[in-house]
Inverse folding.
């Protein structure tokens, strides 16, 4: 898989305007699981309220269900929650809170998967 993702990465660098409609066929349950294992275990719950520990209790089933939704085109990212944290200069910095599965999918779809293969 990493060779295919590397090729997609090369094509994207060669032509930044190139559009990829789906790379779901390249995502494996193994890559998703490896990406999940790479997520910060002590991170706060995502926008959906799911923590790493809660997801991990049934990780294999959760990953297989996520993979199935990706393959069938039924996966939909959850809305982000925007929060603002204060900066030293008195201004505020926006931060978007995602769901745990959205983080896993992002890592597993090639934006981070090569680190895990």
């Amino acid at each position: 898989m990493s060779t295919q993702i590397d090729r997609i990465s090369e094509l994207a660098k060669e032509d930044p305007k190139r559009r990829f409609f789906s790379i779901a066929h390249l995502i494996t349950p193994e890559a998703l699981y490896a990406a999940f294992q790479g997520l910060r275990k002590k991170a706060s719950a995502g926008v959906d309220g799911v923590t790493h520990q809660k997801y991990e209790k049934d990780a294999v089933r959760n990953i297989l269900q996520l993979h199935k939704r990706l393959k069938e085109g039924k996966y939909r990212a959850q809305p982000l929650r925007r929060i603002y944290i204060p900066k030293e200069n008195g201004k505020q910095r926006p931060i978007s809170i995602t769901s745990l599965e959205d983080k896993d999918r992002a890592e597993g779809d090639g934006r981070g998967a090569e680190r895990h293969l």
